[in-house]
Each structure stands twice: as C-alpha cells, then as structure tokens.
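in:
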C-alpha cells in the first residue's frame, strides 16, 4: 500500500508539473506580445517625436534605448516567467545556456557561414543563367554597412533568441516533438513581428513572404539549439542572417531565401527529425 501511495504521489506531482509548464509557456507568449506590442506602442506614442526634434544627444540616446527596449520582450518575458516559476535555480540554468560557448567547433562554422551560403546560392544561380559579376554582386551589395554591423552584433538576436529558443523550445519540447515545436514558435514569432506591418514601418504586402521565411528559419534555429543547447549560438545565427539580409540588397528576395533555407530544412528533417530530442534538466 505504501508503494502504491508513493507511486500515486509521484504521478500527481508529474501531472502538476506538466500543468505548470503548460501555463507558464502560455504566460510567456502572452507576455512577449504584451511587452512588444503594448509597451512598444506606448513608448513610441510618448517618445518617438523627440528623435526628430532639437534635443541633446544624450537625451536622444536614452529615448532610442527606450524605443528598442520592447523588442526585448521575448528575453524579458523569459526572465520574468523563469523567476516566478523556477526561482533562482531556473535562472542560473538559463544563464548557463545563455553564455555557453563550449560546443563542437563546426557549429560555429554553421552559424557564421550558413546564412552567407543561403544568400550566395541564388546569386550563383544568376551567374549560371548568364548574368555578370557586376550585375549579380556589385550592383546588389550595400557597402554602407557600418550601422548594420553594429546593430546586428549588439542587438539583433539578443532581444529575441533567449526567449524563443532558450525558453520556449525546451518547454514546448516537453509536450511536442521538435517539428511541431518549431512550427508553433515559427507562427507565433512571425505574428509577433506584425506590429511592424500594421504600424506602417514595413509594407504589409510583404508580411506573407516574411512569415514564410520566419517559419522556415524556426526549424533551423530549433535544430541548432537542440544540438548545442547554446543560446549564444542561435544569437550569432540570428545576427548573421540579418547581417546578410542587410548587405545583399535587391535579389535574392525574401521568398527565394526562404526556398534555399527550406531545402536545408528538408535535408535536416530527413536525417534528424526523430533524433532531435533536447536534454531536459
């Protein structure tokens, strides 16, 4: 009887943990949207005009930081939810993955070179079709990349990846397989960006192509994180992808890049789909 009671107690504890994990991941996604959409709208309403007026440069820097802060919604939400549901132990584990650098060296090659290859392949196709180097590369490369480099290396990826991959992937993988996990995050990640489109910052007509690319990329990000358990690696990959998107202007467009990534995703799924199981601590 004592053994049965113990087993029943363990089952109940496991059930309660699954329930907490389900609620926490929902809370995480909702909070990510609230911070980015709600706080972002509020800050832009209050502070955006200051950037176009004659204020001290230090004030403008502070305002700019406030304006980009809501973009860190996924990261901030992860920190808040982990602190509430898992305490200091959970935060320490999260930070350990955030700063993890010890992975097989070829993963660094992948995250640095993979995006470059994805953007180069369509241009090589144009060369094979008879276009000149001048037409394919020189006329379609933006050489004014100093700000792009600074932005990508200091901000892009850091705001989002600790949340989408570092928190959401492990939590969803407790309930779903990595394929479904990737799709769920991809859809929510794409619509999280819709704030840029309804506000007019980006053309709303380009949202379907953007969503297609983001959902495809979600599978690659999941694959990288599951195999390395390093948030830093997916931050680097995010930065490199955005950097290539900023440098290689005009062709290839978003849809063509998505098709190149899709080819790699299919190859990855064919080889690793049933083996992509993340370790849980």
């Amino acid at each position: 009887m004592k053994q049965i009671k113990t087993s029943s107690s363990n089952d109940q504890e496991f059930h309660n943990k699954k329930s907490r994990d389900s609620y926490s991941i929902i809370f995480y996604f909702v909070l990510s949207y609230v911070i980015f959409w709600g706080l972002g709208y509020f800050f832009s309403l209050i502070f955006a005009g200051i950037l176009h007026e004659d204020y001290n440069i230090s004030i403008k820097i502070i305002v700019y930081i406030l304006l980009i802060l809501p973009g860190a919604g996924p990261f901030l939400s992860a920190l808040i939810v982990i602190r509430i549901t898992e305490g200091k132990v959970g935060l320490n584990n999260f930070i350990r993955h955030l700063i993890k650098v010890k992975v097989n060296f070829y993963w660094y090659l992948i995250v640095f070179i993979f995006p470059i290859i994805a953007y180069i392949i369509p241009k090589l196709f144009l060369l094979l079709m008879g276009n000149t180097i001048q037409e394919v590369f020189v006329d379609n490369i933006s050489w004014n990349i100093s700000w792009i480099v600074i932005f990508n290396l200091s901000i892009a990826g850091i705001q989002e990846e600790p949340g989408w991959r570092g928190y959401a992937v492990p939590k969803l993988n407790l309930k779903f397989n990595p394929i479904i996990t990737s799709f769920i995050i991809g859809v929510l990640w794409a619509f999280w960006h819709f704030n840029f489109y309804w506000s007019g910052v980006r053309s709303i007509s380009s949202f379907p192509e953007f969503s297609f690319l983001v959902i495809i990329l979600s599978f690659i990000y999941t694959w990288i994180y599951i195999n390395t358990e390093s948030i830093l690696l997916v931050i680097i990959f995010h930065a490199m992808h955005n950097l290539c998107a900023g440098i290689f202007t005009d062709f290839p467009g978003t849809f063509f890049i998505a098709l190149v990534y899709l080819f790699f995703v299919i190859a990855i799924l064919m080889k690793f789909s049933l083996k992509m199981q993340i370790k849980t601590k």
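note: The chain has one domain: 2-272.
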